[in-house]
Design brief:
The chain is α/β, with parallel strands linked by helices. It folds into 3 domains: about 5-230, HUPs (Rossmann fold); about 255-330, Tyrosyl-Transfer RNA Synthetase (Orthogonal Bundle), CATH 1.10.240; about 340-410, Structural Genomics Hypothetical 15.5 Kd Protein In mrcA-pckA Intergenic Region, Chain A (Roll). Helix content is about 45%, strand content about 15%. Strands 1-6-5-2-3-4 form a 6-stranded mixed β-sheet, with helices on both faces. It has a 5-stranded mixed β-sheet with strand order 7-13-12-9-10, covered by helices on one side. Strand 2 (about 50-55), helix 4 and strand 3 (about 80-85) form a beta-alpha-beta unit. The protein is globular. The relative contact order is 0.09. Mean pLDDT is about 90; it is low at about 1-5. Its main location: cytoplasm.
Length: about 400
């Protein structure tokens, strides 16, 4: 059932609005007609729907690419539904094979617990903590035991499991697939049974796992959940999906100035996709802004507005304003007001050694590379001589656009 046929029926204004919000920026909503019926039932009975998002704590920090699904959760939360933020402390011990061409090594319990400590705190910058149910899937997965695991495995076939794209490709390529990897989608699906979820969210790479949840709910005599997949957010380069390994990410725990500057670095084309997936402005407001840009307004105005909105979400409105001023100062060659200050001995001190000791470069060789690239300034003067030694004194040292330090050499 497509969006046009759904909205053309006699839906109430509330259900129509909820459907529009559900579909905003969404890759797929399946089955859409079932979701409409769930929305209608919720409106008629006043009973909120149960909406689930599971995240495995595989890393200690969340970047804004992860917040695409969190934003959708918040939008549904604001409609009055119950959102369940599920921390996959059990499934992380298996390792999610989604999109992998090799077995993912499982994390230790200590690593999982350390990462999980920060997950909800960071997610709470997007979700309303007062209206969020926090669960850990070890609650029901640990008690299953060997007998329960075997009974669960009996509810899904190997043939169905091999329909999964990454398993199929690895099998045809002669690459190993461990038996425990089959357990991951089963355990994620069992989470939906345990939570009696009405809707589960995930990235496009999670579609198979989400569908397993529907199947298992039916096997256990429950009404099956609908699934909603969100696209994977392109990173700062506008090409690859946002990833720490690609260094094209914005961490939500990064300082306000860095966050603001990184948003401003994206292309004008990518900006609109980020507006759809990350901004809380309505689609009508975004379309109006697009029209203003098309009519001649500077696209940078829209990008600044987006940078301030994102920065304020994870810091504060005041921090976003200060970050904008900091960016203006830097673009004019000015020095930010608040920069690290440190003292170093050994005058006269070689410039590459100074960069390393000041934490502006990880090594002297990297410092030399930055100098060769024209990325190092001392008191606003570009340094081109790698053999330069600075005598005793105080200097403002700059690397790139955002790294500064006030260094006193003795």
């Amino acid at each position: 059932m497509n969006a046009e046929s759904v909205t053309s029926t006699s839906l109430s204004d509330g259900v129509r609005r909820a459907l529009e919000i559900s579909l905003r920026g969404t890759h797929e909503l399946l089955p859409q007609d079932e979701w409409v019926r769930k929305l209608q039932r919720a409106e008629a009975t006043g009973t909120p729907l149960r909406i689930k998002l599971g995240l495995d704590p595989t890393a200690p920090d969340i970047h804004i690419g992860h917040t695409v699904v969190l934003n959708k959760m918040r939008q549904l939360q604001d409609l009055g539904h119950r959102v369940i933020f599920l921390i996959g402390d059990f499934t992380t011990t298996i390792g999610d094979p989604s999109g992998r061409n090799s077995t993912r090594p499982p994390l230790t319990r200590e690593q999982i617990e350390a990462n999980a400590q920060t997950y909800y705190r960071q997610a709470s910058l997007v979700l309303d903590p007062e209206k969020t149910e926090i669960r850990y899937n070890s609650e029901w997965s640990d008690p299953l035991g060997a007998r329960g695991m075997i009974q669960l495995a009996a509810k899904y076939t190997v043939a169905r499991m091999m329909e999964r794209d990454d398993f199929n490709k690895r099998f045809k390529a002669g690459q190993s697939i461990s038996v425990h990897e089959f357990l991951y989608p089963l355990m994620q699906g069992y989470d939906s049974v345990a939570l009696k979820s009405d809707l589960e969210l995930g990235g496009t790479d999670q579609k198979f796992n989400l569908l397993v949840g529907r199947h298992l709910q039916q096997e256990y005599g429950q009404e099956p959940q609908c699934i909603l997949t969100m696209p994977l957010l392109e990173g700062l380069d506008g090409i690859e999906k946002m990833s720490k390994s690609k260094n094209n990410y914005i961490g939500i725990s990064e300082d306000a100035n860095t966050m603001f500057a990184k948003v401003l670095s994206i292309s004008d084309e990518l900006m609109w996709r980020w507006y759809t997936l990350l901004s809380f402005q309505s689609l009508a407001q975004i379309e109006a802004l697009k029209a203003e840009i098309a009519a001649g307004r500077n696209p940078k105005d829209a990008k600044v507005a987006l940078a301030k909105e994102i920065t304020a979400r994870f810091h504060s409105a005041a921090a976003a304003e200060a970050a904008e001023q900091d960016f203006i100062n830097r673009s004019k060659g000015g020095v930010p007001d608040d920069i690290p200050e440190l003292s170093l001995g050994g005058a006269p001190l070689g410039i590459a050694q100074l960069l390393k000791q000041a934490g502006l470069a990880p090594s002297t060789s990297e410092g030399n590379r930055l100098i060769d690239g024209g990325g190092v300034r001392v008191d606003s003067v570009v340094i081109g001589d790698k053999a330069l030694k600075l005598p005793a004194g105080s200097y403002v040292v700059q690397v790139g656009k955002r790294k500064f330090a006030r260094v006193t050499i003795t």
